[in-house]
Design goal:
By secondary structure, this protein is of the alpha/beta class. It has 17 helices and 24 strands. Strands 1, 2, 6, 7, 8, 11, 22, 23 and 24 form a nine-stranded mixed beta sheet that branches. Strands 3-14-15-17-19-21-20 form a seven-stranded mixed beta sheet. Helix 5 packs parallel to helix 6 and helix 5 packs across helix 17. The longest helix is centred in the first third of the chain and has 14 residues. The radius of gyration is 23 Å and the shape is globular.
């Protein structure tokens, strides 16, 4: 197949070597950062890996297709039927979102569509929050003080995420340039409770397999949604709970369907993984690894489901204000409520996983899918105890995945000195390549500077320091992240001379449950354009309360998330943060 191709009718060429990325992006390093070479795990299987990935991943399309809108939010978006009135709202087909050209960093020049050449295209998924909804350590009871603390659709995260994978698989290419989609990247909070059950489900969703989204009793659901407690939606019961009073439906057989086996096809393009705070810390906030009491509760047969609003408020304040990052008060809180717990079926699969176990699970050949081996992580990461790495996307573009979590506790992020130096060195060593940075936390949420227990003598660095470093590298194009559950795109023009876009994408656990396609194109006029296009899952916009199939549940997942008390009604954020063309000046290069 020729490596050079122009898209007829669109005037947008595909870079002569960009197809390399579509056959599996190549690792630059093992995540330690001192040698730009294939990772140990990938080098050992290089021949087999390249063949397998090339055989099953994307090629340049056989016929012109750019620009196109099918399957994207440019064409249509799920929207409430009958406007935004009160009560339970049903979804239907809504008008698409237009593309907004943003020129804060550079002025767009006329005729660029006929000149541009595609450099790379990929998909970002973020904050999937795959939830073991029956896990004994979940904090659902905080809902007595804050309606946002529990979502009525949390039992359906697996079905919803599979439908998102199906949508990505159905995309014909990059919507604007027509380039092949080179890879997908998850930017953290892949799991919710730092539980091994959730990690297993996440990896099977991404790489393919059969999943039974149930833990504990294999025959029935055991959790807050069949507890009889009125503060939670009781879909199968006659209880007049608070959500039904707000219009939520009674759905016979819902919980039985929610824990039924489902199948994921797995992504049909290579995918990479970035770690988030919920993947590192139990409940996303506690540095409780090694606390045997919390581990015993996680796998044991007791679950706390109800506390007073005053107690919930105190616990929530401790979490939000980082008063208990080590989980000491949380430990004591659970002990004090031991007599209030309900019996559930114990399950060893609910145990928390360590950073090393997170790496090992990604490296497991059973979760390889179309690759690459380790999904960015390598044996070098395992040896060094790191979760950051770099990889080559195409001849002209590298990707860098950061670890912005702090095992010392709290949900906000930062990075250590060793990683900051590695980031600077990686960019310097690849100064002729454009760079896309991936992380879980945004620049504004990297404020957690407490010591990392794994490296007690290492200084931590905030988001402003990372911005300053990136600003000194003119070939950085974008910093892509999540965490805030909002679509926000921020221009950065730094004193160091560099300018780039920070692209934050909303969570797939909250409405409107989106992923984002990002395209990089050289306009051949001294500017670069980054195109962002949001996509929904493959589930139909309209729901049918009698359809409890895998697809029907995925549709309900979206509609229930719209109606979750306290859910945002902003429908994906401001238009300037959704489907965009982001223009910036081409950075300096040593190649002339």
């Amino acid at each position: 197949m020729s490596r050079t191709r122009s898209v007829a009718g669109s005037g947008q060429g595909i870079h002569r070597r960009s197809v390399l990325a579509a056959t599996g992006a190549v690792a630059l390093s093992g995540g330690v950062g001192y040698a730009l070479r294939p990772s140990d795990s990938q080098a050992a299987t290089a021949g087999e890996s390249t063949t397998a990935v090339a055989a099953s991943s994307r090629r340049a399309p056989a016929a012109p297709l750019a620009p196109y809108t099918k399957g994207t939010t440019v064409a249509s978006v799920a929207a409430p039927r009958g406007g935004s009135g009160s009560g339970y709202r049903r979804l239907g087909d809504g008008p698409g979102w237009r593309r907004v050209v943003r020129s804060e960093l550079a002025a767009p020049k006329s005729g660029r569509a006929g000149r541009r050449t595609a450099l790379a295209a990929f998909v970002q998924l973020t904050d999937l929050h795959i939830i073991d909804a029956q896990h004994p350590l979940r904090l659902e009871y905080l809902r007595s003080a804050d309606i946002h603390a529990w979502r009525p659709h949390e039992a359906l995260t697996v079905q919803g995420a599979i439908a998102l994978v199906e949508r990505i698989n159905a995309l014909r290419g990059a919507p604007v340039t027509g380039a092949p989609l080179h890879f997908a990247m998850t930017t953290g909070d892949n799991t919710d409770n730092n539980a091994k059950s959730e990690l297993d489900w996440f990896l099977k969703i991404m790489s393919g397999g059969r999943i039974t989204p149930n833990s504990g009793d294999p025959r029935r659901y055991e959790g807050v949604q069949n507890s009889g407690l009125k503060q939670y939606w009781q879909p199968d019961a006659a209880v007049r709970d608070s959500d039904k009073q707000a219009g939520f439906p009674h759905l016979d057989g819902f919980l039985k369907a929610a824990i039924r086996e489902v199948r994921s096809p797995g992504l049909n393009l290579p995918w990479y993984s970035t770690v988030g705070n919920h993947d590192t810390l139990p409940m996303g906030c506690y540095a409780s690894h090694g606390d045997s009491y919390l581990t015993e509760l996680a796998v044991g047969g007791k679950k706390l489901m109800d506390v007073s609003a005053a107690e919930a408020q105190r616990l929530q304040a401790q979490i939000k204000k980082a008063r208990d990052p080590q989980g000491v008060r949380y430990h004591d809180f659970l002990k004090s409520h031991a007599r209030s717990t309900r019996s559930v079926t114990p399950d060893e699969r609910r145990a928390p996983f360590t950073p090393a176990e997170y790496l090992q699970a990604h490296l497991d050949p059973a979760h390889r899918g179309v690759g690459p081996a380790g999904h960015g992580y390598s044996l070098a990461n395992l040896d060094a105890g790191t979760q950051y790495y770099a990889f080559r996307i195409s001849d002209d573009v590298i990707g860098i995945s950061l670890d912005t979590t702090d095992s010392g506790g709290h949900y906000e992020g930062s990075i250590g000195t060793a990683q900051l130096k590695w980031l600077d060195k990686t960019l310097r060593d690849n100064k002729d390549s454009y760079a896309v940075i991936f992380s879980h936390h945004t620049s504004k949420t990297m404020t957690n500077l407490r010591s990392d227990p794994a490296r007690p003598n290492e200084r931590r660095h905030n988001g402003q320091e990372v911005l300053a470093l990136l600003g000194g590298h003119p070939r950085v194009l974008a910093w892509v992240n999540g965490h805030i559950h909002k679509n926000v795109i921020t221009p950065h023009s730094m004193s160091g001379g560099g300018s780039f876009w920070e692209i934050s994408t909303a969570s797939h656990v909250d409405f409107p449950q989106l992923a984002r396609v990002i395209e990089l194109a050289d306009n051949k006029d001294g500017t670069i354009s980054l195109f962002t296009t949001l996509v929904e899952s493959s589930a139909p916009h309209r729901t049918d309360f009698s359809d409890l199939s895998q697809t029907g549940l995925a549709a309900l997942y979206r509609e229930l998330s719209l109606n979750a008390p306290g859910a945002s009604t902003s429908l994906g954020g401001d238009p300037k943060d959704r489907n965009t063309e982001l223009v910036l000046k081409k950075g300096a290069t040593t190649r002339g």
